[in-house]
Amino acid sequence: MNLTEAGFVAGWRLIRALPRPVAAAAFRAGADRAHRKDGGGTRRLRANLRRVVGPELPEAELDALVRAGLRSYARYWMEAFRLPSLSRSEILAGFRLDGADKLAADVAAGRGAVVALPHAGNWDAAGAWVAATGWPMTTVMERLKPEGVYERFVAFRAGLGMEILPTHGGPRPAFDVLVDRLRAGSVVPLLADRDLSARGVEVDFFGGRTRMPAGPALLAIRTGAPLYVASMWYEPDAACASIEGPLPLPAEDSAPLDERVRVVTQRIADGLAAGIARHPEDWHMLQRMWLDQGPQGAPTSAQPPATTGTV
Questions:
Q1: pLDDT for 34-55, tens place per residue?
Q2: Which residue of 115, 200, 229, 309 is 20 to 30 Å from 192, comparing CA positions?
Q3: CA-to-CA distance for 272 and 266, rounded, in angstroms?
Q4: Residue 309 has pLDDT above 50, yes or no
Q5: If DSSP states are collapsed to H, E and C, what string results for the chain?
Q6: Considering only CA atoms, which of 38, 123, 141 is closest in space to residue 73?
Q7: What's the chain's Rg over C-alpha atoms?
Q8: pLDDT tens digit string along 235-251?
Q9: Which of the pair, 48 or 170, is modelled with greater confidence?
Q10: CB distance 255 to 268 below 8 Å
Q11: pLDDT per residue over 183-231, tens digit each?
Q12: Contact assessment for residue 231 and residue 279, using Cβ atoms and an 8 Å cutoff
């Protein structure tokens, strides 16, 4: 076991043993230290949030937003470490979903549903809530390095009732398994605001160009399953989410498949942007996001970051 894996093991064992107020205070203090240190992740978050809020927001207010974003991200990790110790009733009480009736109807009808998620709020709490509600749920997970960390995260999420597929290296391609699960009536939530393959669909997002994964759109087009876009955020007492949709899908004979996927992925991007704009402090994007960004997240041109006028 290396130091990274040991750190996660310690987190799962120790953080859940602490009283919640003590754990929350410790993670909040850690977030504030990260804010003061202003390392690479913090600078990228700052650049990403500048895109969201636009050039007019004063620097002092942006700085406060960055601090709130780091605290939100710390809260996510604190709650993730504590999730395995929660009872089913505590999991159900700790998450609220506006639009749950839509998913309930989809599962009951056996048609399943695809839900495009942002890296925001607490997606692990959302997945645990879906499983605790009694709905079948399958998703994919990037193969983290080292392998021991990946395996522990798979075990963590599987222990909460989620079926986790690797993005690559599984017995069958993940896409084929997801098609089968949707046709069997499962909920398939997929993080959709950042492409990890460098083969994603180029879209407009807050006035800049970025790539997002084609999977959510392609799955909905292939299976006919309803496709929703989620907004995720924190309230003081719970992680929250709402879903919009189902999104309209182009008719099969309206355009080639790649063009239909592009159209639907842009619709997903627009829905994600609307939710992020409502709760920017809960968008946990500490990585390079736009195609014109340099290594630290700042635009490579001298122009001020653009904003979208639609959200």
A1: 999 999 999 999 999 999 999 9
A2: 309
A3: 10
A4: no
A5: CCHHHHHHHHHHHHHHHCCHHHHHHHHHHHHHHHHHHCCHHHHHHHHHHHHHHCCCCCHHHHHHHHHHHHHHHHHHHHHHHHHHHCCHHHHHHCEEEECHHHHHHHHHHCCCEEEEECCECCHHHHHHHHHHHCCCEEEEECCCCCHHHHHHHHHHHHHCCCEEEECCCCCCCHHHHHHHHHHCCCEEEEECCCCCCCCCEEEEECCEEEEECCHHHHHHHHHCCCEEEEEEEEECCEEEEEEECCCCCCCCCCCCHHHHHHHHHHHHHHHHHHHHHHCHHHECCCCCCCCCECCCCCECCCCCCCCCCCC
A6: 123
A7: 19
A8: 999 999 999 999 999 99
A9: 48
A10: no
A11: 999 999 999 999 877 789 999 999 999 999 999 999 999 999 999 999 9
A12: yes
Q: Locate 174 and state its tokens.
A: 């993940």
Residue type, 39: G
Name 234's Cβ contacts closer than 8 Å, sequence gap at least 6: 72, 75, 121, 122, 240, 279, 282
Nearest to 170 by CA among 150, 199, 192: 150
Other C-beta atoms within 10 Å of 215: how many? 25
